[in-house]
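Give me the fold.
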Amino acid sequence: MRNPFRPRDEELGRAATLALRLTAIILLLQPAPVWYLRPILISLAVLVVAVPAILRTPAAWGAMAILLAVRVVRLWPTPDNHHYLYVYWTLAIFLALLALRPGVVLGRAARWLVVGVFLWATLWKGLLSPDYLDGRFYRVRLLTDHRFAEATRLVGDLTAEQIEGARAYLKPAPYGEPNSQMPRLVESPGVHRLATFLTWATLLIEGAVALAFLLPWGRHTLVVRHGALFAFCGSAYAIAPVAGFGWILCAMGVAQVPDNRRGLLLAYVFVFLLLRFYLDVPWERFLLAIRA
């Protein structure tokens, strides 16, 4: 086994290097909310981006994996799903950098992490959760999650006041002051249609991504795999702007691209930046203003 504190002398390769830099950028864009972890993680991420020798040092990535695991434990049970994926991915980078062929090992680890994420998501939604298939999950999410508020107003044809009333209705009693009136739950046909569409579209596209990355390597596999991942990131995070999840999927996708496919690497960078626009540009609010 290689010395984890010594940078690799071998060239990582264009794709693996880009995957590692994107991962460090993700940690800069989404710093840990735990005050005593945040400065250490940010400092390591800056060093990884700025200093090539540190980018290739296994110990730096092992330290980040440990710190990210501490964050998950510290915030238990509230961390989002992709925070666990950060731990798995940085650990995979650490182990890959200890291998003789780090780019190959990292690409294989990325592939099976993507398979695991989407296969288990499909199994959970399609087989293990009846409250997902009947639409309840998105019916509640559209009314209670602030990230869906504009989409619910735009497609579900509800006012901001009706959404606030639905949120209050779905909260446990009491509803404020002892003499306060019970809030009303308003569900429009548009909300039902949107919930049904999101339920089945999510299940189908996640299943398609899992199947695409399970396919054995062949002539058309490259296009199918990465096309499916592009379609998922470009569509899902336009409605639910959870950029951190999409970014880590982009980093894992990049790790699987052959070094000679520069166009595909640039496409992942474009999708990475697109998710930033989804997060910051209130396009649904613009559409609401135009409709009004």
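The chain has a mean pLDDT of 89.
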